[in-house]
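Take a minute with the sequence and fold tokens given here and flag any structure token that looks odd. Thanks in advance.
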Amino acid sequence: MIIFSDKVYNILKWVLLIFVPALITLISGLGSVLGFDTKALVAIIGLVATFVGSCVGISSVNYKKEG
């Protein structure tokens, strides 16, 4: 059963909602400007973010069940 503390939950939520999209945009933009293929890197970051987001969602559901 996954239940994150409030601090960890808030940090992960900020990372997933603010940091990851900004990072993906930065990498994609720099790749376009510099002529690099960034598809694999952006896909990996997106996959990891989706996995962590699922864990955060599970934690939220488990927290609500206990409360």
Observations:
- The helical segments are 6-34, 39-66.
- Residues 6-66 form one domain.
- The mean pLDDT is 95.
